[in-house]
Design a protein that fits this description.
With about 350 residues, this protein is an alpha/beta fold. The chain has one domain: Alpha-Beta Barrel (TIM Barrel). The protein has eleven helices and twelve strands. The chain has helices at about 10-15, 35-45, 50-65, 115-120, 140-160, 180-195, 230-245, 260-270, 285, 290-295, 300-325; strands at about 5, 25-30, 70, 90-95, 125-130, 160-170, 205-210, 220, 230, 250-255, 280, 335-340. Helix 6 links the parallel strand 6 and strand 7 (about 205-210). Helix 2 packs across helix 10 (about 290-295). The two termini are about 20 Å apart. The mean pLDDT is about 95.
C-alpha cells in the first residue's frame, strides 16, 4: 500500500476526535429544530433557545466523560462546550438544520454567519457537514451537491482542519425511509455515496455513514419485525460491499434508532468484518432523557443521564472495543501515514 500523506492540521484533528486506540467514539449533540420540537412536545409548551442550550450543556457534561469527541452546532451549542470533559475533541456542524421542502432535491445550505475559518476559531478540531444525497437523483441536482462539497473540502484544506462528511440517503419516489421498500434500495444508495465521496476532489477525511441495511428487516436479528428484506448472511455481505468501495476511513451514525438496536447493528457490522473506525452516536444514547427534561427539568435530566445515559454509552463503548478498528488501520497502519 502506498504511503498516505495527511496534513498536520487534519491529522491532529482526527486524532483529537479519536480515543487512544484510534477509534472515534463520539457523541452527537448538534440536533436543533427537531430537538426543540421534541422537548416542547414533552413539556407541552414552547421551548426557548436557552432551554436548548441547557439541555446540550447537561448532555455534554455527563456523556463526554465517556466519549472521545462531541459533535455540536455553533448556533445553540457553543456555551455547552465549556462543560465537556478534558481531552474531548470537538466537531462543529457547518450546515443549516433541515432542508427547504419547497425545492426539489433537499438542497444543502450553510450557516450564513459562519465559515470554516470561524468554526476553527470557535474551537473545532473538525468540521461536519450533513448532506442529503440520493445517487439516483436527477444529475443536475447531484452536480449542485458535488460542487457544494468540493467548495467545503477546499475551505477545510485552506484552513488545514479535518472534514467529516455525513451523507444521508433518501428516495422521494418511495418516501418513507423506515419502509420495507426503502430497506431494499438503501444498500445500493449507501454503497454509491461511499464510493462517490471517497473521491479526492471532495477533500473528505472521515465519512460518517449510515449502515447499509435496516436491521428491523434482517431475518434472525433480535429486532426483526417480521418483514424480510435480507437474511443475516445477505446483510453481512451488504456491509462488506459498502465497505469495499470506501477509500476513506468511515464511522457509523445511529440515525435516531434506540441504543439497543444500534448496538445490535454494530455487532452485525463487526461480525461481517467491516473495518469501521467508530461511531458518531447521538439520539440512541440520550433521546429517552428528553421527556425527563421536558417534564422534570435540568436536575432530573442530569440524574437520568448519570444512570441510564452512562449505561447506554458504556454498553456502546464495549461493542466498539470489540468491533471497531483504529482509523489509521484503514491506511495500513500509522507507519504508512506521512504527516506533512
Amino acid at each position: 500500500m502506498a504511503t498516505v500523506r495527511i496534513s498536520k492540521g487534519k491529522f491532529d484533528g482526527i486524532q483529537a476526535c479519536a480515543n487512544e486506540h484510534g477509534v472515534i467514539a463520539a457523541a452527537a449533540m448538534d440536533q436543533r429544530g427537531s430537538l426543540k420540537k421534541a422537548i416542547a412536545k414533552a413539556r407541552g409548551s414552547e421551548v426557548s433557545d436557552s432551554d436548548l442550550t441547557e439541555f446540550k450543556a447537561i448532555v455534554t457534561k455527563v456523556l463526554t466523560k465517556h466519549a472521545s469527541a462531541i459533535l455540536m452546532d455553533p448556533e445553540y451549542g457553543l456555551p455547552a462546550l465549556a462543560q465537556r470533559a478534558p481531552g474531548t475533541g470537538v466537531l462543529l456542524a457547518y450546515e443549516k438544520t433541515g432542508y427547504d421542502v419547497s425545492v426539489q432535491g433537499r438542497l444543502p445550505d450553510l450557516l450564513s454567519n459562519y465559515s470554516v475559518r470561524r468554526i476553527k476559531a470557535a474551537g473545532a478540531d473538525a468540521v461536519k457537514i450533513l448532506l442529503y444525497y440520493n445517487p439516483a437523483d436527477d444529475a443536475a441536482i447531484n452536480e449542485v451537491k458535488h460542487a457544494f462539497i468540493e467548495r467545503i473540502g477546499s475551505e477545510c484544506v485552506a484552513e488545514d482542519i479535518a472534514f467529516f462528511l455525513e451523507p444521508i440517503t433518501y428516495d422521494d419516489t418511495i418516501g418513507d425511509e423506515k419502509s420495507l421498500a426503502f430497506a431494499k434500495v438503501k444498500p445500493k444508495h449507501v454503497t454509491a455515496y461511499m464510493a462517490e465521496f471517497s473521491k479526492p476532489q471532495y477533500g473528505v477525511d472521515i465519512l460518517k455513514v449510515e449502515v447499509p441495511v435496516n436491521v428491523k428487516f434482517v431475518e434472525g436479528m433480535r429486532v426483526f419485525g417480521g418483514e424480510k428484506a435480507y437474511s443475516r448472511a445477505e446483510a453481512m455481505e451488504l456491509f462488506q460491499q459498502a465497505a469495499s468501495v470506501a477509500k476513506k476511513p468511515f464511522i457509523y451514525l445511529s440515525a435516531g434508532v434506540t441504543d439497543e438496536i444500534f448496538r445490535e447493528t454494530l455487532e452485525l457490522a463487526a461480525e461481517a468484518g467491516t473495518p469501521f473506525s467508530g461511531v458518531l452516536c447521538g439520539r440512541a444514547t440520550w433521546q429517552d432523557g428528553i421527556p425527563v427534561y421536558g417534564q422534570q427539568g435540568a436536575a432530573a435530566l442530569e440524574a437520568w443521564l448519570e444512570d441510564r445515559g452512562v449505561k447506554n454509552i458504556t454498553a456502546l463503548n464495549e461493542v466498539l472495543a470489540k468491533g471497531a478498528k483504529p482509523w489509521w488501520d484503514f491506511y495500513g497502519g500509522m507507519a504508512n501515514i506521512e504527516v506533512v
